[in-house]
Amino acid sequence: MTRPNRARLNILDLVPVVDGGTAAEAIGSTVDVAQHAERWGYHRYWMAEHHNMRGVASSSTAVLIGHVAGRTASIRVGAGGIMLPNHPPYVVAEQFGTLATMYPGRIDLGLGRAPGTDQPTARALRRNEMAAMNFAGEVEELIGYLGDPDPDATVRAIPGEGTHVPIWILGSSHGGAQVAAALGLPYSFASHFAPAALLSALEVYRRQFQPSIHPGGLDEPRTMAGANVMVADTEEEADRLFTSVLMRFHGIVTGRRTALPRPDGDVASLLGSWSPAERAAVTEMTRVSFVGTPERVRDDLAAFTEATGVDELVVTCGAHDHAARLRSFELLADAWS
Protein backbone atom coordinates (compact mmCIF):
# COMPACT_ATOMS: atom_id res chain seq x y z
CA MET A 1 0.00 0.00 0.00
CA THR A 2 1.22 3.50 -0.88
CA ARG A 3 1.71 5.67 2.16
CA PRO A 4 1.01 9.43 2.09
CA ASN A 5 4.08 11.63 1.87
CA ARG A 6 4.46 14.91 3.68
CA ALA A 7 2.54 17.00 1.13
CA ARG A 8 0.36 19.56 2.84
CA LEU A 9 -3.38 19.19 2.34
CA ASN A 10 -5.44 22.25 1.47
CA ILE A 11 -9.01 22.99 0.38
CA LEU A 12 -10.25 24.93 -2.64
CA ASP A 13 -13.85 26.00 -2.08
CA LEU A 14 -15.81 27.09 -5.16
CA VAL A 15 -18.61 28.28 -2.82
CA PRO A 16 -21.17 26.24 -4.76
CA VAL A 17 -24.79 27.33 -4.96
CA VAL A 18 -26.61 24.02 -4.98
CA ASP A 19 -29.80 23.13 -6.80
CA GLY A 20 -32.60 24.34 -4.54
CA GLY A 21 -30.26 26.56 -2.49
CA THR A 22 -29.27 30.23 -2.35
CA ALA A 23 -26.04 32.22 -2.46
CA ALA A 24 -26.51 33.14 1.20
CA GLU A 25 -26.71 29.45 2.10
CA ALA A 26 -23.62 28.75 0.00
CA ILE A 27 -21.61 31.37 1.90
CA GLY A 28 -22.86 30.02 5.22
CA SER A 29 -21.78 26.52 4.19
CA THR A 30 -18.35 27.83 3.24
CA VAL A 31 -17.82 29.31 6.69
CA ASP A 32 -18.91 26.04 8.30
CA VAL A 33 -16.57 23.96 6.13
CA ALA A 34 -13.65 26.32 6.87
CA GLN A 35 -14.23 26.10 10.62
CA HIS A 36 -14.29 22.31 10.47
CA ALA A 37 -11.26 22.21 8.14
CA GLU A 38 -9.29 24.22 10.67
CA ARG A 39 -10.05 21.65 13.37
CA TRP A 40 -9.22 18.77 11.04
CA GLY A 41 -5.75 20.11 10.27
CA TYR A 42 -6.04 21.47 6.74
CA HIS A 43 -3.32 24.05 6.07
CA ARG A 44 -4.93 26.49 3.60
CA TYR A 45 -8.50 27.36 2.68
CA TRP A 46 -8.74 29.04 -0.72
CA MET A 47 -11.63 30.49 -2.70
CA ALA A 48 -11.63 31.26 -6.42
CA GLU A 49 -12.87 34.26 -8.37
CA HIS A 50 -15.72 33.49 -10.78
CA HIS A 51 -18.31 35.83 -12.29
CA ASN A 52 -21.80 35.49 -13.78
CA MET A 53 -22.19 31.83 -12.79
CA ARG A 54 -25.45 30.72 -11.19
CA GLY A 55 -23.74 27.91 -9.33
CA VAL A 56 -20.80 29.83 -7.84
CA ALA A 57 -21.00 32.51 -5.11
CA SER A 58 -17.35 33.60 -4.92
CA SER A 59 -17.35 36.62 -7.22
CA SER A 60 -16.26 39.03 -4.44
CA THR A 61 -13.35 36.86 -3.41
CA ALA A 62 -11.51 39.32 -1.16
CA VAL A 63 -14.74 40.01 0.77
CA LEU A 64 -15.28 36.28 1.29
CA ILE A 65 -11.69 35.79 2.42
CA GLY A 66 -12.17 38.41 5.11
CA HIS A 67 -15.48 36.84 6.13
CA VAL A 68 -13.92 33.37 6.50
CA ALA A 69 -10.72 34.62 8.15
CA GLY A 70 -12.80 36.50 10.71
CA ARG A 71 -14.64 33.33 11.67
CA THR A 72 -11.58 31.10 11.94
CA ALA A 73 -8.48 31.40 14.10
CA SER A 74 -5.42 29.77 12.56
CA ILE A 75 -5.99 28.26 9.11
CA ARG A 76 -4.47 30.20 6.22
CA VAL A 77 -7.18 31.78 4.06
CA GLY A 78 -6.65 33.02 0.54
CA ALA A 79 -7.48 33.32 -3.11
CA GLY A 80 -7.08 30.45 -5.47
CA GLY A 81 -7.26 32.80 -7.12
CA ILE A 82 -7.71 36.42 -8.03
CA MET A 83 -7.89 36.88 -11.81
CA LEU A 84 -5.43 39.75 -12.05
CA PRO A 85 -6.45 41.03 -15.51
CA ASN A 86 -9.85 41.90 -14.00
CA HIS A 87 -8.34 44.28 -11.41
CA PRO A 88 -5.75 47.04 -11.17
CA PRO A 89 -2.75 45.64 -9.25
CA TYR A 90 -2.93 48.61 -6.89
CA VAL A 91 -6.50 47.75 -5.85
CA VAL A 92 -5.54 44.11 -5.24
CA ALA A 93 -2.57 45.28 -3.15
CA GLU A 94 -4.83 47.47 -1.01
CA GLN A 95 -7.40 44.69 -0.56
CA PHE A 96 -4.93 41.99 0.39
CA GLY A 97 -2.74 44.37 2.32
CA THR A 98 -5.79 45.22 4.40
CA LEU A 99 -6.59 41.54 4.89
CA ALA A 100 -3.00 40.78 5.89
CA THR A 101 -3.07 43.67 8.36
CA MET A 102 -6.28 42.38 9.91
CA TYR A 103 -5.19 38.73 9.91
CA PRO A 104 -1.37 38.76 9.97
CA GLY A 105 0.39 35.60 8.83
CA ARG A 106 -2.79 33.99 7.54
CA ILE A 107 -3.51 35.44 4.08
CA ASP A 108 -2.46 33.95 0.72
CA LEU A 109 -2.82 35.57 -2.70
CA GLY A 110 -3.03 33.26 -5.70
CA LEU A 111 -3.03 35.03 -9.06
CA GLY A 112 -4.36 33.85 -12.42
CA ARG A 113 -4.58 35.51 -15.80
CA ALA A 114 -7.83 34.01 -17.10
CA PRO A 115 -10.96 36.19 -16.83
CA GLY A 116 -12.86 33.63 -14.74
CA THR A 117 -15.98 34.30 -16.79
CA ASP A 118 -17.39 34.76 -20.29
CA GLN A 119 -16.41 37.55 -22.66
CA PRO A 120 -19.49 39.78 -22.12
CA THR A 121 -18.89 39.67 -18.36
CA ALA A 122 -15.18 40.29 -18.86
CA ARG A 123 -16.09 43.46 -20.74
CA ALA A 124 -18.48 44.43 -17.95
CA LEU A 125 -15.54 44.27 -15.54
CA ARG A 126 -14.13 47.21 -17.56
CA ARG A 127 -10.47 46.23 -17.59
CA ASN A 128 -8.08 46.71 -20.50
CA GLU A 129 -8.05 43.52 -22.59
CA MET A 130 -4.27 43.87 -22.91
CA ALA A 131 -3.81 43.38 -19.16
CA ALA A 132 -3.60 39.61 -19.59
CA MET A 133 -0.80 40.09 -22.14
CA ASN A 134 1.31 41.84 -19.48
CA PHE A 135 0.56 39.40 -16.68
CA ALA A 136 4.18 39.14 -15.48
CA GLY A 137 4.55 42.91 -15.39
CA GLU A 138 1.34 43.34 -13.41
CA VAL A 139 2.43 40.67 -10.93
CA GLU A 140 5.71 42.54 -10.42
CA GLU A 141 3.82 45.79 -9.94
CA LEU A 142 1.66 44.14 -7.29
CA ILE A 143 4.71 42.67 -5.53
CA GLY A 144 6.16 46.16 -5.41
CA TYR A 145 3.11 47.59 -3.66
CA LEU A 146 3.27 44.83 -1.01
CA GLY A 147 7.05 45.05 -0.56
CA ASP A 148 9.21 47.08 1.80
CA PRO A 149 7.88 50.61 2.44
CA ASP A 150 9.34 53.32 0.22
CA PRO A 151 8.67 56.78 1.68
CA ASP A 152 9.67 58.36 -1.63
CA ALA A 153 7.23 56.35 -3.75
CA THR A 154 4.57 58.40 -5.51
CA VAL A 155 1.94 55.68 -5.06
CA ARG A 156 1.87 53.57 -1.91
CA ALA A 157 -0.55 50.83 -0.80
CA ILE A 158 -1.65 51.66 2.75
CA PRO A 159 -2.43 49.15 4.20
CA GLY A 160 -0.31 46.90 2.04
CA GLU A 161 3.29 48.00 1.95
CA GLY A 162 5.52 45.88 4.13
CA THR A 163 3.00 43.03 4.43
CA HIS A 164 4.77 40.80 1.86
CA VAL A 165 1.58 38.82 1.31
CA PRO A 166 2.66 35.40 -0.05
CA ILE A 167 1.87 35.24 -3.77
CA TRP A 168 1.24 32.06 -5.77
CA ILE A 169 0.96 31.94 -9.53
CA LEU A 170 -1.90 29.77 -10.73
CA GLY A 171 -2.22 28.21 -14.13
CA SER A 172 -3.25 25.38 -16.41
CA SER A 173 -0.60 25.85 -19.10
CA HIS A 174 3.08 26.58 -19.59
CA GLY A 175 2.47 30.35 -19.53
CA GLY A 176 1.78 30.58 -15.81
CA ALA A 177 4.62 28.16 -15.10
CA GLN A 178 7.07 30.40 -16.94
CA VAL A 179 5.92 33.51 -15.07
CA ALA A 180 6.18 31.76 -11.69
CA ALA A 181 9.65 30.44 -12.56
CA ALA A 182 10.95 33.79 -13.78
CA LEU A 183 9.75 35.61 -10.66
CA GLY A 184 10.76 32.89 -8.18
CA LEU A 185 7.20 32.39 -6.94
CA PRO A 186 5.35 29.21 -5.95
CA TYR A 187 3.21 27.63 -8.66
CA SER A 188 -0.17 25.89 -8.40
CA PHE A 189 -1.57 23.91 -11.32
CA ALA A 190 -5.32 23.68 -11.94
CA SER A 191 -5.40 19.95 -12.58
CA HIS A 192 -8.82 19.68 -10.95
CA PHE A 193 -10.38 20.89 -14.21
CA ALA A 194 -7.61 21.18 -16.85
CA PRO A 195 -5.10 18.37 -16.26
CA ALA A 196 -3.68 17.96 -19.77
CA ALA A 197 -0.46 19.96 -19.28
CA LEU A 198 0.10 19.12 -15.61
CA LEU A 199 3.38 17.21 -15.83
CA SER A 200 4.91 19.28 -18.61
CA ALA A 201 4.03 22.58 -16.90
CA LEU A 202 5.58 21.40 -13.62
CA GLU A 203 8.71 20.37 -15.54
CA VAL A 204 8.91 23.79 -17.23
CA TYR A 205 8.51 25.55 -13.90
CA ARG A 206 11.20 23.50 -12.15
CA ARG A 207 13.64 23.71 -15.05
CA GLN A 208 13.29 27.47 -15.57
CA PHE A 209 13.01 28.47 -11.90
CA GLN A 210 15.07 31.48 -10.81
CA PRO A 211 15.43 32.35 -7.10
CA SER A 212 13.38 35.40 -6.22
CA ILE A 213 15.00 38.80 -5.81
CA HIS A 214 12.05 40.00 -3.76
CA PRO A 215 11.89 39.78 0.07
CA GLY A 216 9.85 36.75 1.07
CA GLY A 217 10.34 35.07 -2.31
CA LEU A 218 11.57 31.53 -2.89
CA ASP A 219 15.08 30.12 -3.14
CA GLU A 220 13.82 26.89 -4.71
CA PRO A 221 10.65 25.74 -6.51
CA ARG A 222 7.44 25.06 -4.60
CA THR A 223 4.47 23.43 -6.27
CA MET A 224 0.84 22.56 -5.68
CA ALA A 225 -1.71 20.66 -7.74
CA GLY A 226 -5.50 20.59 -7.62
CA ALA A 227 -7.69 17.49 -7.42
CA ASN A 228 -11.36 16.65 -7.15
CA VAL A 229 -12.18 14.36 -4.26
CA MET A 230 -15.28 12.55 -3.09
CA VAL A 231 -14.82 10.40 -0.01
CA ALA A 232 -17.54 8.35 1.63
CA ASP A 233 -17.89 5.29 3.84
CA THR A 234 -18.55 3.07 0.81
CA GLU A 235 -17.43 3.07 -2.82
CA GLU A 236 -21.05 3.08 -3.96
CA GLU A 237 -21.94 6.18 -1.96
CA ALA A 238 -18.87 8.08 -3.14
CA ASP A 239 -19.68 7.10 -6.72
CA ARG A 240 -23.26 8.34 -6.34
CA LEU A 241 -22.22 11.66 -4.80
CA PHE A 242 -19.67 12.25 -7.56
CA THR A 243 -22.40 12.34 -10.20
CA SER A 244 -23.09 15.93 -9.08
CA VAL A 245 -19.54 16.88 -10.08
CA LEU A 246 -19.82 15.15 -13.44
CA MET A 247 -23.11 16.89 -14.20
CA ARG A 248 -21.58 20.25 -13.32
CA PHE A 249 -18.73 19.65 -15.77
CA HIS A 250 -21.23 18.44 -18.37
CA GLY A 251 -22.97 21.79 -17.99
CA ILE A 252 -19.68 23.56 -18.68
CA VAL A 253 -19.05 21.42 -21.78
CA THR A 254 -22.55 21.97 -23.17
CA GLY A 255 -22.85 25.65 -22.19
CA ARG A 256 -25.70 25.00 -19.75
CA ARG A 257 -24.24 26.07 -16.43
CA THR A 258 -26.67 25.70 -13.56
CA ALA A 259 -26.62 25.40 -9.80
CA LEU A 260 -24.77 22.33 -8.51
CA PRO A 261 -27.04 19.39 -9.40
CA ARG A 262 -28.34 16.79 -7.02
CA PRO A 263 -26.64 13.38 -7.35
CA ASP A 264 -28.35 11.02 -9.77
CA GLY A 265 -27.66 7.34 -10.29
CA ASP A 266 -24.11 6.13 -10.73
CA VAL A 267 -21.10 7.31 -12.70
CA ALA A 268 -21.19 4.62 -15.39
CA SER A 269 -24.87 5.16 -16.18
CA LEU A 270 -24.47 8.92 -16.23
CA LEU A 271 -21.49 8.87 -18.61
CA GLY A 272 -23.32 6.40 -20.83
CA SER A 273 -26.25 8.80 -21.23
CA TRP A 274 -24.12 11.46 -22.98
CA SER A 275 -22.79 11.69 -26.50
CA PRO A 276 -19.29 10.29 -27.12
CA ALA A 277 -17.87 13.81 -27.51
CA GLU A 278 -19.46 15.03 -24.29
CA ARG A 279 -18.34 11.93 -22.43
CA ALA A 280 -14.77 12.33 -23.66
CA ALA A 281 -14.64 16.01 -22.72
CA VAL A 282 -16.01 15.50 -19.19
CA THR A 283 -13.78 12.47 -18.62
CA GLU A 284 -10.70 14.46 -19.60
CA MET A 285 -11.60 17.48 -17.47
CA THR A 286 -12.17 15.30 -14.40
CA ARG A 287 -9.21 12.98 -14.94
CA VAL A 288 -7.55 14.15 -11.70
CA SER A 289 -10.38 12.98 -9.46
CA PHE A 290 -10.19 10.59 -6.53
CA VAL A 291 -13.43 8.92 -5.53
CA GLY A 292 -14.05 6.16 -3.00
CA THR A 293 -13.43 5.09 0.57
CA PRO A 294 -10.90 6.97 2.75
CA GLU A 295 -8.21 4.33 2.28
CA ARG A 296 -8.59 4.24 -1.49
CA VAL A 297 -8.58 8.02 -1.90
CA ARG A 298 -5.63 8.37 0.47
CA ASP A 299 -3.56 5.85 -1.45
CA ASP A 300 -4.51 7.26 -4.86
CA LEU A 301 -3.73 10.81 -3.73
CA ALA A 302 -0.40 9.67 -2.32
CA ALA A 303 0.46 8.00 -5.62
CA PHE A 304 -0.52 11.19 -7.48
CA THR A 305 1.67 13.26 -5.17
CA GLU A 306 4.61 10.93 -5.71
CA ALA A 307 4.13 10.95 -9.50
CA THR A 308 3.97 14.75 -9.71
CA GLY A 309 6.41 15.59 -6.92
CA VAL A 310 4.22 18.44 -5.69
CA ASP A 311 4.77 19.89 -2.24
CA GLU A 312 1.09 20.58 -1.57
CA LEU A 313 -2.31 19.38 -2.67
CA VAL A 314 -5.43 21.52 -2.92
CA VAL A 315 -8.62 19.47 -3.06
CA THR A 316 -12.15 20.45 -3.92
CA CYS A 317 -15.32 18.49 -3.18
CA GLY A 318 -18.49 19.09 -5.17
CA ALA A 319 -20.97 17.17 -3.05
CA HIS A 320 -24.48 18.63 -3.31
CA ASP A 321 -25.35 17.84 0.29
CA HIS A 322 -23.51 19.97 2.85
CA ALA A 323 -23.23 17.12 5.37
CA ALA A 324 -21.75 14.87 2.67
CA ARG A 325 -19.17 17.51 1.77
CA LEU A 326 -18.17 17.89 5.40
CA ARG A 327 -17.96 14.13 5.80
CA SER A 328 -15.77 13.84 2.70
CA PHE A 329 -13.25 16.37 3.98
CA GLU A 330 -13.27 14.83 7.46
CA LEU A 331 -12.66 11.31 6.19
CA LEU A 332 -9.83 12.50 3.95
CA ALA A 333 -8.15 14.46 6.74
CA ASP A 334 -8.29 11.48 9.08
CA ALA A 335 -6.89 9.13 6.44
CA TRP A 336 -4.15 11.52 5.31
CA SER A 337 -2.88 12.22 8.79
Describe this structure in words.
The protein is α/β, with parallel strands linked by helices and about 325 residues long. The protein has one domain (about 10-335): Luciferase-like domain (TIM Barrel, Alpha-Beta Barrel). About 45% of the residues lie in helices and about 15% in strands. The chain is built from twelve helices and nine strands. The chain has helices at about 25-40, 60-70, 90-100, 120-125, 135-145, 175-185, 200-210, 235-255, 265-270, 275-285, 295-310, 320-335, and strands spanning about 10-15, 45, 75-85, 105-110, 165-170, 185-190, 225-230, 290, 310-315. It has an eight-stranded parallel β-barrel, surrounded by eight helices. Helix 2 (about 60-70) links the parallel strand 2 and strand 3. The longest helix is centred in the last third of the chain and has 20 residues, at about 235-255. The mean pLDDT is about 95.
